[in-house]
Amino acid sequence: PYTVSPLEGLRSALGPAVVVEHAPGVRTATRVPPAELDLLAVPRTGEAGVRVRLLSAEGAVLLTERRRTAQLTWAGGFGPEIAPGTVATVEVVTSVTAPETGRYAIGCSGLGRFRLAIDGVERFAEVLAPSPETDDIDAFVRLPQWSATVALVAGQPVELVLRHEVDPDGFQVKIEINVDQIVADPEAALAEAVDLARSADVAVVVVGTTEEVESEGFDRTSLRLPGRQDELVSRVLDANPRTVLVVNAGAPVILPCADRVPAVLLTWFGGQEFGNALADVLLGLAEPGGRLPVTWPADEPAWLPTTTPTGGVLSYRESITIGYRLWDAVGAEPAFCFGHGLGYTTWDYLALDLPAGPAAGGDVPVRVTVRNTGARPGREVVQIYAARPGGTVQRPARWLVGFAPVRVDPGREATVEVTVAARGFEHWDTSAGAWATEPGVFELAAGRSVGDVRLRAALRRG
To answer: In Å, what is the CA distance from 69 to each residue of 46, 73, 159, 375, 381?
Structure first.
């Protein structure tokens, strides 16, 4: 499949006049990953990828096709041209050509019986099965795996033939061919990355989570980055303070060095165009305009909600103080607040205007005027939070009731209107079994995040 890595994106954007060097630094995986496409070729044709054959119980070939991936999945059947229940065996054939001479882990992943031959020698013929306590979805996401260490010579192809016996009662088939070079000296690999950063004008360190620790079907057991990524960041910063930290993750992670890094860019999972998009943002062609929809903690305090049931029960003990509201409730300061996000300009908040006179029970238009005080055009996300000081109803200390983006040229002002729905002032009345509004004065605050409020105004309801 088409993908652009961060390295490819930066090299393409900067061109031949700028030397972009790379070192892996540390490993993040404990499993052998699916083989990269550039390692694989169909024997005799040399086409990139693998050859797949679907075979009947009698050995008849039902379908032959080439796939440009080492991860193969069929769900609910093998396609409209294949009659249900006729596929008995899936055969995958490819050759692996190592770019460097060394020791490699070669294996397969899946559920069920597999046979794997490496250069004509059968190395594996067993059933791959999860442990009895493993959840079904977890087993399908993190497939059972087998691998062996094989010495490969650069440029010399090694043929792999993988056969999988299809469960006639199964709904899905998922197969992986796994290949990865074994790092002979992890300390030397880390030192190489640090030395490279020391000699560079600017270091870009890409860290993140992997499908081993963050995926569907299972909960994360830690907010820490896997492997020695924190150590990599710290040592690169020691070697070169001009470092950009790129975080490729789908959820919060602990960043011990966040306060030392000049720039932290959260890319979430960038997808196929990750490298090109990253280059655009790092080189200033596009502004990083996102805002955090979650709170990023600085550590893992004991009061954080757990994902581990006790006695088969998972208690939502935070109640209405869910998410960012919990940080206000315990009086804690996170690493990055809900709603936080920086761009390539700066902002002043000039005015917060509410409708004149007492508000009825309907929606409330809130007008906020901002000024772009930087030298570049920019996009701001104006956020409105509500509070009910002195109220008798149990509430969070403050809660988001609206937001709106606005684009402003440098040195210019703009006014954005945020409609606060009537529902934003209501609470659930358990005795009446309906939503209700506690009469009194609410505070509306405008700002850049829940932790960066710039303007406040009072509004009477009821």
So the answer is: 14, 10, 16, 46, 40
**How would residue 41 be classed by pLDDT, with cut points 50, 70 and 90?**
very high
pLDDT at 222: 92
Written as six digits, the tokens of 104 are: 């490699």
* 444 domain residue, yes or no: yes
Residue 160 counted as domain residue: yes
Domain of residue 370: give its range.
347-461
Answer whether residue 70 is part of any domain: yes
Query: Could you give the 3-state DSSP secondary structure of residue 266?
Result: strand
Confirm whether pTM is higher than 0.85: yes
Mean pLDDT of all residues in 135-162:
93
Say if residues 96 and 158 touch (Cβ distance below 8 Å). yes
**329 found inside a domain:** no
Decide: 114 and 108 in contact? Cβ < 8 Å.
yes
Cα separation, 349 vs 372, whole angstroms: 9
CATH number at residue 136: 2.60.120.260
Asked if 41 and 172 sit in the same domain, the reply is yes
Residue 359, pLDDT score? 59
State the residue for tokens 């703009």: 414
DSSP string, 143-182: --EEEEEEEE-TT-EEEEEEEEEPPTT-SEEEEEEEEEE-
Query: Is the Cα torsion angle 391, 397, 398, 399 positive or negative in sign?
Result: negative
Is the pLDDT at 53 greater than 80? The verdict is yes
Q: What is the mean pLDDT of residues 92-103?
A: 97
**Among 148, 181, 214, residue at a domain's last position:** 181
| 280-295 residue pLDDT tens | 999 999 999 899 999 9
